[in-house]
Each structure stands twice: as structure tokens, then as C-alpha cells.
């Protein structure tokens, strides 16, 4: 599946080269992005990272809009340097002029939230439940202490967990 995505990256670069009549250094492309972001351009590393799950779920729009969006960041950086705004007029010029696409800052893809285990901590206050992340729970087990903001007592693990 990433072959189509890599082909689209190359097509975007060829369009930019034809438009600006100059060559552009090709980036390294990674598919190890997770979470809510569809793509990220690392300007100084000349690296593009894409979210394969969002690509699979939104392939047509992703290829058309998201890939061009991220390539435009790298092209703008190579043309104008590092002092431009990420979604400023230079980037917008490339989106509109080179790719003939709207310069949308964000995608509207539906993102599946991961389930997370929460560790329930309590204090003497009535109806006190403090759901801690696994990372915070680990810190408590290593000796860190957290206090209730109302009663100033140390929060204690109740032994309960819940999945959110």
C-alpha cells in the first residue's frame, strides 16, 4: 500500500520542479506516525512521516490532499528557508499554485481513539476518583506522591482499574 503513497510524493515533487523550474531534494518517507496526525514534515531532516491507518481509511483524499500538504511544507522550506510560518503565504502559494488544492491546515478524518487503562486513585474526600494513566501509576509505584487539591492528602491506589 505505501507504494501509491510514495508515488504520489514523487509526483508532487515533479509538479513543484516543473512549476518552479528547479530541482528539489527528495525526502526520506516514513510510515511510523500514529495518533491524530495524518502527516508530519520534518523540515531540517527532510523527512515526511505518514499515518498508515489514516491513509488506509481515507486513501483517496489522503493521496490528493495530505501528501501534497506535507510535500508543500518541505518545498516551501527549501525555497524560502526556515523563518516562514508553517501554514503561511509561502506554503499557501504552493498548495494553490502548484497543486491547485485548498490550503487546508487540518484534515477531518475520523480518528479511532485508543483504549486506555486508568488506575483509580482516591483520597478521604467524598466521591473522590482520580483516574491515573499507566505512566503516572508507574511513577507512583516508583515513589512519587500526588496530593488531592481539596484535602491535601496523598492519593492512594484503590486497586481498581477502568478502560476508557
TrEMBL record:
SMART domains: SprT. One of its GO terms (biological process) is response to stress. Residues 7-158 form the SprT-like domain. It comes from the Bacteria. InterPro entries: SprT-like_domain. Pfam families: SprT-like. This is Protein SprT.
